[in-house]
């Protein structure tokens, strides 16, 4: 490893970056090296922006008419474009990987979080989250924008970001923007305004706003409308409710009309100003929300800039945009000019390309404006395009969180294998990294990277060795990324890539269940729990309560498929319940990573459930089918996609010796990965709620905090309540240690227990004030003392590499 880290002529690796890089290479920083301030960090997440959406120098996608993203291109020119990045297939699982450095099978966040899920599908308050790691290095961390890591059934409710270590949060706690208000603020009770405003183009009218709780009015016509748009859209862009063809004082809306949410333009904003203890329980009225009438992308930029300017010392800003998540709406014309101002369908099932482009372009503009406002770039006179970038001591990372959704995918990417699947269109995302540590900017890295790897990148940039800080009970899947930035000749670091999707852990309550929702020809049993989310936000067909289908209410996708087969449509397919993908190096003689294994497991509609143990989720009425596997050679598709044309060993295709070898080795990798989470799953079922892989008095103490307060991570039997039944399970397994002493004592994760581990243990001596990071507590008594030293000494003698 040491040979990969070279000092390049004219480049000074200083402070935390240089120290981390040298440490990763097995070298020591010179004693006289200067220690300037640690780099600040800006982490930008784009929602549902797969790699197919962009056309940049090293990412030649975007379809026939790609969006215009000059600011992303300028940043890429000054940084490194990562062209081979895998995420998880949906929002919540991907975001959890970024903030924990752990795959979904460890965090439990294996599905997009909805109101039907228990906290076991949330990012746990006991994870060693990125803001907690960065706090150890003196950083203050904020999350601005989308959270979507669990709140509705969490003991902390909307305060959840604070119990996960964020010092500041300002944004929406919803999975995505609320549905479009087709009544346009209650003005059209028929609900015909598909984009949330009157698209009449020329009609003047009264524009009502409500600043400081008092309703005001301005009359808007084509003469005083915003440039390149009409009166109604102008009113919406300024936070108002428009009543066409009337003067002020006529049909004045009430205060309640202003509380109607309207996708990107009217949304509930939650503000949290300090981190909270992981055990915090919300009394029910804390961390509430207020209606914000600023366009989401604009508001998130403004809020991020405001927080940043108020800070002193090292800081990390996560700017988590909602764009381009459905439901879709045009951004303000003050941000993205729209000379045609054409009517739009705002259709989420078949999204108009110009609308998608505008939303991506709005993010590009806002990224530029944010950097300019922070003094890190210079804007052109048009106020939208950057002319120069001067990040100084700031690391900038821009990433898509998962693949594009359905029909939003751009040719030649496969819209049938998009978001929600582990195929390439669903998990292949763009990433750009720029900052002071980038050597030879303007290049690309084609080696495999996973979103979990950001955990170690941010830690290394902040001067934190996460391998020694985070207890071994928290398995870390993250691989180093910093070498790619400081050494243009760095060799591949990751030799296996992984992605997965599951159903999540559901509440058993019937009222919380999801229902069949068919999007395109794919029916899903475990994704959607409301008619609005299915139809309005995803353009789907709803078969749950209140359905308008002739079939009536149907309880499962098996019944949906059967119904349509009886009515002449055999194209309805069932979404898998479990999905896995692994990519790796098939043999020592082959240096390519072109082979990919996909494993899918869905329901067998011919096998009804005969006992509760067969249920993959609480309301399942059919058993799981046997898993099926698909092997792909990505090099056989010029775009690197996994289409049926480049599937290997499929029926009717010859399976070569190399193909069989690749399939066997990737199967080994997949089996090893699945098995690696068994200890954690088994320990949780025995009462380990705080993820330290033991059941002890701490679990009882934590259970007491949540007892009688509904769902929590100490709802061990998953019945939706934290109660005496859960305590009985904990007590029955008290004293269980789900790790060996050798595993627990290897505090630096190097595979051997030695003097270095003893040094780390001695640094933690005393009471465990923070149960997340107290890895030196080998015997689980909530302190690190002489008894732990004796155990470490024993481990040094008996644990062999």
Textual characterization of the structure:
The protein has 801 residues and is of the alpha+beta class. Helices cover 24% and strands 17% of the residues. It contains 22 helices and 29 strands. The strands form 7 sheets. Strands 1, 2, 3, 4, 8, 9, 10, 13, 14, 15 and 16 form an 11-stranded mixed beta sheet that branches.
Helix-strand layout with pairing:
Blueprint: H1 15-24, E1 40-46, H2 70-77, E2 79-86, H3 91-100, H4 104-107, H5 130-136, E3 140-146, H6 160-163, E4 168-172, E5 205-209, E6 216-220, H7 231-237, E7 241-244, E8 267-272, E9 289-292, H8 296-309, E10 315-320, H9 353-373, E11 377-379, E12 386-389, E13 394-400, H10 424-427, E14 428-434, E15 443-445, E16 449-450, H11 454-461, H12 466-469, H13 482-486, E17 496-501, E18 517-519, E19 522-524, H14 531-535, E20 541-542, H15 557-566, E21 573-574, E22 578-584, E23 595-601, E24 603-608, E25 622-624, E26 628-633, E27 647-648, H16 657-675, H17 678-686, H18 697-706, H19 724-732, H20 741-745, H21 755-763, E28 766-767, E29 783-784, H22 786-798
Parallel strand pairs: 1-10, 1-13, 2-15, 2-16, 3-4, 3-10, 19-21
Antiparallel strand pairs: 2-14, 4-8, 5-6, 5-7, 8-9, 11-12, 13-14, 17-22, 18-19, 18-20, 22-23, 23-26, 24-25, 26-27, 28-29
Q: Percent range for helical residues?
A: 10-25%
Number of helices: 22
Number-wise, the strands total: 29
Q: What class, by secondary structure content?
A: alpha+beta
Distance between the termini: 19 Å
**Biggest beta sheet summary:** 11 strands, mixed
Tell me, rounded to a whole number, the average pLDDT: 93
Radius of gyration: 27 Å
Low-confidence stretches: 1-35
> What spatial form do the alpha-carbon principal axes imply?
globular
